[in-house]
Specification:
Layout: H1 12-61, E1 82-87, E2 90-101, E3 120-131, E4 134-144, E5 157-164, E6 175-180, E7 190-195, E8 201-207, E9 214-218, E10 225-226, E11 236-237, E12 249-255, E13 260-268, E14 271-277, E15 285-289, E16 291-294, E17 297-300, E18 306-311, E19 319-330, E20 336-343, E21 365-367, E22 379-386, E23 394-404, E24 413-418, E25 421-425, E26 428-431, E27 434-438, E28 444-450, E29 453-458, H2 461-464, E30 466-471, E31 477-479, E32 484-493, E33 498-505, E34 516-521, E35 524-529, E36 535-538, E37 544-551, E38 558-565, E39 568-575
């Protein structure tokens, strides 16, 4: 008997599996190694930070009570507020903060038993460094009290700074810079940087009794708030620099929040358009069966059968919205015309876009406003005509309304101004944000780093040649903290007198497209439909008082005999 043996080689799958297992093992080892490096390096850096903080504390303990304070601080002393140091190859920043504290054991504030609120000095030494995983810090805090029996009143008053956000909630860790160069002696000039506590507050007992405390509040990624100097432009700054009076508490409250972004797009005006076929010839007919097209009619030829007529594709340039398909037809008793809408490729527009389209419409007014212009930038209209006995139906005219425009309009100059103010002067109110801008070559301007505020965009028609004819975010527009908003402005050619009318739902304030707006007076009458932004624009007017009627199905008609037009005018109308 012969014996057979089989030798099995290593397959590609075996190799891949083995390699994968080894990779998992080595990745785990590498991760563990990196973690151990982080732990070792961070422990080394932390040890250095503790040593630097202890060194500072020991030095402070060697000082007299009067010397315990920071250069430019409240209280003033010999200690640096901030130092950049290096130890064992690690870079550190050591910050020292000294504040007077009010001991609750003898009462606080106005309830203090001996009327001395500067009972002790609170000292905080904070050392920060950057590790491989981000910024780290350690802090040592202690208090220094005067010798027993020598507690004495500190000259000056108390300065309290509160920092809140846009919702009026306290803001933790906001940076405060307080500067006062008018102190006496000059060597006691204040230039202090510190941070708010969990209550959004920083309190400085023993602040020198003087005016001109300049306060600036900042935080990374947030807006800035500050006090303002008196200048030739701003003769009544608000808020002005703070004044501290002896034995009094001065409180300043400042609001900052996350920065926002605003994008402004300038575009050509959205205007109404109409495509019409009066059936004077077959130029606008794509196909027809058993239908004669001529002489202002599309007529069924054979009374005993059906016929069909289909339009060419209607594809308006710069299309914004579809409107209403309106048909005038003749239907003797027993005859029928049924209408359907297709896309340019001949596919029926689904009922999800146009309810009832699959069954067809017998109505002569078909609302197409729900049909997406991005999905269906062109439409084809179809009618099936059915005769009866000796009678034939016909279509006299069909037309569809739409709006178009909204293509970029470059290099439009405009002014954008916030509602927040910093005071007033000879030229009037001084606004915190007031800038002359341009939409640039693309018609799009991105403005990052804006404070939450209500912004008003205006255009000088005489210099730019344009008037704002529509804005889906009517001016002025509120920009929330941390938001990213886009304002689209549609422009028409400037005329001396014009009026832009916003139509809103009274209960919600939501803009109401599709309302009919009739503006009239002796010698003038014009009707417009509120666009997709809920606005109607009338230009080329003479100044004066006009009557106004605004109506929409399902709403009470608004009537006003006093719509005043003088220059570039605006009016808001609410419908119930």
């Amino acid at each position: 008997m012969s014996r057979r043996t089989t030798a099995r080689g290593v397959t590609l799958i075996d190799t891949i599996v083995a390699t994968s297992l080894m990779l998992v093992v080595f990745l785990g080892i590498a991760a563990a190694f990196n973690l151990s490096l982080d732990i070792v390096s961070n422990n080394k850096a932390r040890g250095g930070a503790i040593a630097l903080a202890d060194e500072r504390m020991e030095y402070i303990r060697s000082l007299t009570y009067a010397q315990v304070g920071t250069v430019g601080g409240i209280p003033s002393g010999v200690l640096a507020q901030s130092e950049s140091l290096s130890l064992n190859g690690v870079s550190y920043v050591r910050r020292t903060l000294v504040l007077y504290g009010d001991d609750a054991s003898d009462g606080t504030g106005v309830a203090d038993g001996n009327s001395i609120t500067a009972d002790y000095k609170l000292v905080k030494v904070d050392v920060t460094w950057n590790s491989r995983t981000g910024a780290r810090h350690i802090a040592l805090v202690t208090r220094f009290s005067p010798a027993p029996g020598v507690e004495s009143a500190v000259a000056g008053g108390t300065l309290t700074i509160n920092v809140i956000d846009s919702a009026s909630s306290p803001l933790f860790n906001a940076q405060l810079r307080i500067v006062n160069a008018s102190t006496t002696p000059a060597s006691a000039a204040i230039d202090l940087t510190t941070y708010t506590n969990a209550s959004g507050t920083a309190t400085f007992i023993g602040a020198t009794s003087t005016g001109a405390y300049q306060v600036t509040v900042t935080k990374s990624g947030y807006s800035t708030a500050q006090t303002y100097s008196l200048t030739a432009v701003n003769t009544s700054p608000n808020p002005g620099h703070l004044t501290v009076s002896t034995n009094q508490t001065t409180t300043g409250t400042f609001a900052i929040d996350l920065l926002a972004q605003k994008t402004v797009q300038t575009l050509n005006q959205i205007v109404p358009g109409t495509w019409t076929d009066p059936f004077s010839d077959a130029a606008k007919i794509a196909t027809s069966t058993n239908v004669s097209v001529s002489g202002g009619k599309a007529s069924l030829i054979d009374t005993t059968s059906t016929g069909e007529v289909r339009s060419i594709a209607v594809a308006p340039s710069a299309l914004m919205t579809w409107g209403t398909l309106t048909v005038t037809d003749t239907k003797p008793v027993g005859t029928l015309t049924r209408y359907r809408v297709y896309d340019a490729a001949g596919a029926l527009i689904p009922d999800s876009q146009l309810s009832g389209n699959s069954a067809g419409f017998t109505s002569t007014s078909i609302d197409l406003s729900g049909v997406s212009t991005s999905t269906y930038p062109s439409l084809v209209f179809d009618s099936v005509l059915t005769g009866a006995a000796s009678s034939t139906p016909s279509i006299d005219v069909w037309s569809v309304g739409y709006t178009y425009g909204g293509d970029p309009l470059p290099n439009v100059a405009f002014t954008m101004r916030g509602a927040k103010t910093t005071g007033s002067g000879p030229s009037g109110t001084v606004y915190k944000y007031n800038s002359a801008l341009s939409s640039g070559s693309t018609g799009v301007l991105v403005l990052p780093g804006l404070e939450w505020d209500t912004y008003l965009i205006t255009v000088a028609g005489t210099s730019t040649g344009y008037d704002i004819a529509s804005a889906c975010s009517p001016q002025p527009e509120t920009l929330a903290a941390g938001a990213s908003a886009t304002t689209r402005l549609y422009f028409a050619t400037h005329t001396v007198n014009s009026i832009l009318i916003d139509v809103h739902v009274a209960s919600s304030g939501v803009l109401l497209p599709g309302a009919t707006v009739h503006l009239y007076k002796t010698g003038y009458s014009a009707t417009s439909t509120a666009d997709s932004c809920g606005q109607a624009f009338f230009s080329g007017l003479t100044s004066g008082t006009y009557s106004l009627d605004v109506s929409k199905s399902g709403y009470t008609t608004y009537t006003s005999p006093a719509a005043n037009v003088a220059g570039t005018s605006r009016l808001s109308v609410s419908l119930n």
